[in-house]
# Entry
Amino acid sequence: MISLENRRAVIVEDDEWFAEQLATIMKKQGMNCQTASFADEAIAKIDTRLPDVILLDMLLTGSTGLVLLHELQSHDDLARIPVIVCSATADMLEQPMLAAYGVRRVIDKTTMHPDDVLAAVRSVLA
Amino acid sequence: MSTEERYASRVGATPSEKYISDSGFIAAAHELKAPLALIRQLAFQLEDDTVSAAEKKLFASKVRLSAEKALRVTTDLTKAARLEDAMFTLEPVNATAICKEVLYELQEYAASRGKKLQVQAGRSLPPVIANHDLLRRIVTTFSDNALAYGGDTILLDVKRGRDGVVRIAVRDYGPALSLSDYYRIKKQLSRPQAVHARPQSSGLGLYIAHQFAHLMSGNIGIIRHRDGVSFYVDMNASTQLSLL
# Structure
């Protein structure tokens, strides 16, 4: 099983408590996590930190996750970072369209188990 | 006859009942998803044997506060669905006192999110003609919205408006709204949509607030600031005292 020790993640989620839950799950595996509530804040952190993986909620306050994905795709280095979408509206998302924006996995917030997050992270880092 | 009324007449429901049961049904489901998904994740943490007692206490508190937020949504939905047949007494009420009640109700939830509610009221404000419970629901909805999307401080501001109204505004200092979001939310004040507002919200709460305000001859609206948003309700001032 791939180790997540010292891997870097940026969690883009505007519900602070949900973001904390995701961070807790990943920190237990030794990952370094930063959270961002808004797309602008996320871009700044991603640009500075160049994380190994991005966890992204699609419905953000202000600019949506899609705007952020579009921005990431416009930079060669950022476009290569795998994105895992973690959304309460996963069933309404068009996954082929998201794949074109660098989204490698989609997790449904309403049904996910903490292990699903780790499995998704491991799969995109493998 | 509006589209809403024509549609409702075909299925034998009053317009507001039918509209709530269709568009509102989807919006309500979406609105409840976020707190329920969070509660579920917190429950996983509570089941984890490696979590300390102090952390479990914190998680339990978050479960309770998230459940209370979801229950506020269900209370609003129940009231909105029964507006046609329920009797709501309109009487002179003190808007500032209502804001203080909302502050008291939400202060623990606000503090748990690192935020603070403040009430600011003008001097010698007249009472407003309203139903105490419905007006409180409106202010609570605006405040919940601000707590979810605004910055650290939320201001509940009561002041005298134009043309004999008292304006109760909930001002947040979150990210500026884009013009497109502003116009979308303005539209949602009178009609719920499936998903989107300040995007995570369905706009259902605002729609219900509009229904409540309409019942009391009040109006709700939105003001876009450079550093946030104000949602307000204008209520008619009571003239009873001046007639005495």
Summary: The beta strands of chain B are 91-93, 116-121, 128-130, 153-160, 165-172, 219-225, 228-236. Chain B touches chain A at residues 30, 33-34, 36-38, 40-42, 44-45, 62, 66, 113-114, 148-149, 174-178, 181, 195-196, 198-200 (CB under 8 Å). The longest strand of chain B covers residues 228-236. Residues 1-13, 193-199 of chain B have pLDDT under 50 and may be disordered.
